[in-house]
UniProtKB/TrEMBL annotation:
Residues 45-185, 217-358 form the SIS domain. It catalyses: D-fructose 6-phosphate + L-glutamine = D-glucosamine 6-phosphate + L-glutamate. Its EC number is 2.6.1.16. The keyword Transferase applies. Transmembrane segments: none annotated. GO terms for molecular function: carbohydrate derivative binding; glutamine-fructose-6-phosphate transaminase (isomerizing) activity. The chain holds residues 242 to 609 of 609 of the full protein. Its main location: cytoplasm. The gene is glmS. Keywords: Aminotransferase, Cytoplasm, Glutamine amidotransferase, Repeat, Transferase. The active site is at residue 363. It comes from Halopseudomonas xinjiangensis. This is Glutamine--fructose-6-phosphate aminotransferase [isomerizing].
Length: 368
């Protein structure tokens, strides 16, 4: 039962392990062999998808990070503009809404005060429609939006969001595919996305097998006060989410940078007390980072890299590379989320924090 920890020590761990099943539920009834089934968005949505020329995404916290990944997908695969913003900023500023813009609000709970206020604010802004991407069917957000896309991840109890995030990403890749289809776009891309999504529960299952290896690695963080997370492209928001998870439950100060920004400041902070976690699936990031990180290594800095098993990597000194199976680019950010969730979980265990209820944080922030 979802409201019971069962064999798991914490809800967070249980929810991490539920991800293959949660993703399967998100995708249930949404995919054909070479097309996606868009009726679930509602009758009006189905006919109007083709008219969308711009997308605005508004959310908070982890849900905001899901939106940031979607921007890469929507602009690259659909070829329409996509802007992503935190709800607390969006709701109080003057927003320019071009004709035929879809507003997407993303929220696990559907009750986050700022996100709900953003949706209400958007009502008078001339959007083509508003869409709630949410895990809770009867929530305020879902009730008040024109269209809905439910993640069906099941109840999430741990304050640090895990399965809600990966299922949001799954729904957003599905929506990206729906937009390509509605616009008569690249058929091959549609099929690639569909097959990749179908393979995802199995790949996540494989990534979960890294648990023991990551638990060992977590020991290295026990006496650290800071950590840096690096990524590029769709993996930059994944690095942000990795840093947020570590902050939330282990209370270690963690920051994420787009890897190319390393030399524009954060490199000055790096020494043996600063673990540097890179999400570097393709190896191109690793190549680009190498010269910067020589310096890190020379000073005993710890480099932890999550990379694709097909890419050549060297284990040198204190540098550690953990490999994940090869997957299509489109689902790679979803897969690489898993080891970062496990890392923050195990670091929190080492530090002895209250994993499911970290201090000062709430599962759902229903007041401003
Ligand atoms: C709180 C939670 C986060 C969550 C954020 C947005 O800060 O602790 O885990 O990402 O709210 O919540 P929502 O329900 O709108 O996704």
């Amino acid at each position: 039962h979802s409201l019971d920890k069962g064999e798991y020590r914490h809800f967070m761990l249980k929810e991490i392990y539920e991800q293959p099943e949660a993703i399967t539920q998100t995708l249930a009834g949404t995919l054909g062999d070479d097309h996606v089934l868009t009726a679930l968005l509602g009758p009006e949505a189905e006919t109007r998808l083709a008219d969308i020329e711009h997308v605005h995404i508004v959310a908070c916290g982890t849900s905001f990070h899901a939106g940031l990944v979607a921007r890469y997908w929507i602009e690259a695969q659909v070829g329409i503009t996509c802007q992503v913003e935190v709800a607390s900023e969006y709701r109080y500023r003057t927003v320019v809404v071009p004709k035929n813009t879809l507003l997407i609000t993303i929220s696990q709970s559907g009750e986050t005060a700022d996100t709900l206020a953003a949706l209400r604010f958007a009502k008078d802004q001339g959007y083509l429609a508003t869409l709630a991407l949410c895990n809770v069917a009867g929530s305020s957000l879902v009730r008040e939006a024109n269209w809905r896309l439910l993640t069906h991840a099941g109840p999430e109890i741990g304050v640090a969001s895990t399965k809600a995030f990966t299922t949001q990403l799954v729904a957003l890749l599905w929506l990206t595919t729906a937009l390509i289809q509605a616009r008569g776009g690249d058929k091959q891309q549609i099929i690639t996305n569909i097959n990749a999504l179908k393979s995802l529960p199995g790949m996540v299952e494989q990534a979960l097998q890294l648990d023991t290896r990551i638990a060992e690695l977590a020991e290295r963080f026990a006496n650290k006060h800071h950590a840096l997370f690096l990524g590029r492209g769709t993996h930059f928001p994944i690095a942000m989410e990795g840093a947020l998870k570590l902050k939330e439950i282990s209370y270690i100060h963690a920051e994420a940078y787009a890897a190319g920004e390393l030399k524009h400041g954060p490199l000055a902070l790096v020494d043996e007390n600063m673990p540097v976690v890179s999400v570097a699936p393709s190896g191109s990031l690793l190549e680009k980072l190498k010269s910067n990180l020589e310096e890190v290594r020379a000073r005993g800095g710890q480099l932890i890299t999550f990379a694709c098993e097909r890419v050549e990597h060297a284990e040198e000194g204190t540098a550690q590379t953990i490999t994940l199976p090869w997957v299509e680019d489109c689902i790679s950010p979803i897969l690489y989320t898993i080891p970062l969730q496990l890392l923050s979980y195990h670091v929190a265990l080492v530090k002895g924090t209250d994993v499911d209820k970290p201090r000062n944080l709430a599962k759902s922030v229903t007041v401003e």
